[in-house]
Amino acid sequence: MNYQYNYQRYLASKKQIDDLALNKRVLDTLSAKLDRKASGPPIKIIEIGAGIGTMVERLLETNIIPSADYTAFDISRSNIEEAKERIISFAERSNYLIEIVGPYKFIITRGSFSLRLNLIDQDALEFIESAKGVQDTDLVIAQAVLDLLNLKQILPNIFSILKQDGLFYSSINFDGMTYFGPAIDDKFDSIIEDQYHQTMIDSRTGRHLLSLLVDSKWEILAAGSSDWMVYPSDSGYDENTSYFLHYIINTVYEALSTKSNINQVRLEAWINKRHEQVENNILQYIAHQSDYLATKGLANGK
Ligand SMILES: C[S@@+](CC[C@H](N)C(=O)[O-])C[C@H]1O[C@@H](n2cnc3c(N)ncnc32)[C@H](O)[C@@H]1O
Asked: Which ranges of 36-150 does DSSP label H, i.e. alpha helix?
């Protein structure tokens, strides 16, 4: 397998997979809530771990957000550089006007819609900590990132920067189940899954987030699963999905390749077989994930 594994390309390939997986009920509820804010001044949005900016694109593609000031944080400089390139070409091909007002600042407009976008390569946790208590944010977005962070620490800080009717949209929260098929060896397949999960900071972020939202002052407005379910179509895998799958398989390899409790010869054979299954258009892959939309609980007096 002669793949060059590149994180930004992986995030680009993930967009299409996420689009299919995102929970529609949760997104529709977000859309309805934001619709109510459309007649007011621009809303304030913060995104944590924005990667290469695919959520901004998604929200523009689906017209879900009203005019807004949108600050997208990612800790990686390369991701922010890629986000900059992508947003410029996205706007140009999608009939948005884009004005570049700073190295990483843009005003994106179409008709009466206007988005002031600021891309920042900074630890979002630091920013949220420094803004603690300001209560000026309408929407905080965190997709596929909370499993990398300390939930118990970050949730109260997110709560404290939101306005009283502010929204927290968190999607693609991994929740403890990975499946690769068809089976190679049931027992070894399970060992790989189990050991892979053990390398994660929190392999059950989905349910832990649910518990924390329920047990604290938040009100959940919508929740649902957003599993990645990847399977070949009659014409096989397209290049994008194929890249995504190879990248995921390689991620499993990198996570386990230094573990002394795993037979490395067997691991390499297993990984090679999974790559082959992608090339032969027979691999199936599921990752269980969940999405939430929550607010500060004004309605139920929590
Ligand atoms: C799995 S990626 C998801 C990216 C994007 N949300 C998406 O769904 O495509 C997680 C991202 O979070 C970023 N990240 C991790 N910790 C962070 C932090 N403390 N502050 C800002 N970004 C962070 C990483 O650099 C990475 O781009």
From this structure: 54-61, 77-93, 124-130
Q: Is the CB of 82 inside a 6 Å radius of any atom of ligand 1?
A: no
- Give the tokens for residue 199: 């390398």
Domains of the chain (ranges; CATH) run 7-176+201-229+290-295 (3.40.50.150)
Token pair of 219, please?
């009100």
HSE-CB for 76 with a 13 A CA cutoff: 13
What residue's CA is closest to ligand 1, atom 12?
A: 49
Q: Is 14 in the pocket of ligand 1 (CB under 6 A)?
A: yes
Per residue in 44-84, pLDDT (tens digit) is 999 999 999 999 999 999 999 999 999 999 999 999 999 99
Question: CA 201, CA 61: separation in Å to the nearest integer?
Answer: 32
Predicted confidence (pLDDT) at residue 301 exceeds the cutoff of 80: no
Are 73 and 50 in contact by the 8 Å Cβ rule? The answer is yes
- pLDDT (0 to 100) of residue 121: 98
* Verdict on whether the full-model pTM lies above 0.90: yes
- Decide: 47 in ligand 1 pocket, CB within 6 A: no
| Alpha helix stretches (DSSP H) within the chain | 7-21, 24-35, 54-61, 77-93, 124-130, 151-161, 186-198, 205-215, 239-256, 264-279
- pLDDT, one tens digit per residue, over 153-189 is 999 999 999 999 999 999 999 999 999 999 999 999 9
Q: Show the tokens assigned to 236.
A: 């096989």
